[in-house]
Amino acid sequence: MLKRIHHAAIICSDYVASKDFYVGKLGLRIIAENYRPARQSYKLDLALPDGSQIELFSFPDAPKRPSYPEAQGLRHLAFVVEDIAKAKQDLEAQGISMEEIRIDEYTDRRFVFFSDPDGLPLELYEA
């Protein structure tokens, strides 16, 4: 019945900073950008090359996401890359702090974690 993930929705605290991060630094393509005056909220639809999407929202006074210790719920968002070392180097060159590359003990694939401007955990996974 389920075929693939269509989109993930993210609520940010600083719309301008998050838009720059996801578009300017991660290179996602803008599909649509709308301001919803009744909700005082932006909704930015972003595309990845495979057709999957991220919806970036801003809401006034949204509570912070509990992270450490990790809370129940979505743990992180992972993106597939072909060359993890190059992707890590490219992001670090843009001022993004990255953890060290690790190896998944079950798949032997390399992965690395980093965070968006609100501390949302993101992962690069080498395929």
Annotated CATH topology of the largest domain: 2,3-Dihydroxybiphenyl 1,2-Dioxygenase, domain 1
Structural class: alpha/beta
- Give the CATH architecture of the largest domain: Roll
**Main β-sheet, spatial strand arrangement:** 1-4-3-2
- Give the tally of β-strands: 8
What is the helix tally? 2
Number of domains: 2
State the CATH superfamily name of the largest domain: 2,3-Dihydroxybiphenyl 1,2-Dioxygenase, domain 1
Helix and strand element order: EHEEEEHEEE
Terminus-to-terminus distance: 25 Å
Cα radius of gyration in angstroms: 15 Å
Mean pLDDT: 93
| Poorly predicted segments | none
Task: Give the C-level CATH assignment of the largest domain.
Answer: Alpha Beta
Structure description:
With 127 residues, the protein is of the alpha/beta class. The chain folds into 2 domains: 1-61, 2,3-Dihydroxybiphenyl 1,2-Dioxygenase, domain 1, CATH 3.10.180.10; 74-127, Roll (2,3-Dihydroxybiphenyl 1,2-Dioxygenase, domain 1), CATH 3.10.180.10. The protein is built from 2 helices and 8 strands. It has helices at residues 15-25, 84-93, and strands at 7-12, 29-36, 41-47, 53-58, 77-81, 102-103, 110-115, 121-126. The protein has a 4-stranded mixed beta sheet, covered by helices on one side. It is globular, with a radius of gyration of 15 Å. The two termini are 25 Å apart.
